[in-house]
Amino acid sequence: MANSAQARKRARQAEAARQHNAGQRSAFRTAVKKVLKAIEAGDKAAAQAVYQQSVSVIDGIADKKIFHKNKAARHKSRLSAAIKALAA
Questions:
Q1: pTM of the entire structure?
Q2: Could you give the domains of the chain?
Q3: Distance CA 51, CA 9 (A)
Q4: What is the pLDDT of residue 56?
Q5: Which GO cellular component term is one of those annotated (predicted)?
Q6: From CA 57, how far away is CA 43, in angstroms rounded?
């Protein structure tokens, strides 16, 4: 347990940041799942529309360093490739 006032405050701040970051990680996963669901439905136009919305969410989370930028890029690349494969 934190003994000094400074340590108590840092513990409060760390908990607030942890909860905020957990929400951001959840938004990332939800955005990816929305695109995957649209791809599974087979509607390329809808999948592209959802993908564009999800890219902004994914990039925002990477910019805040909640996820590494390479992880965000990897997800975007794989989702984009899956959407392009729908035409084939």
A1: 0.84
A2: 5-85 (1.20.58.110)
A3: 40
A4: 95
A5: cytosol
A6: 21
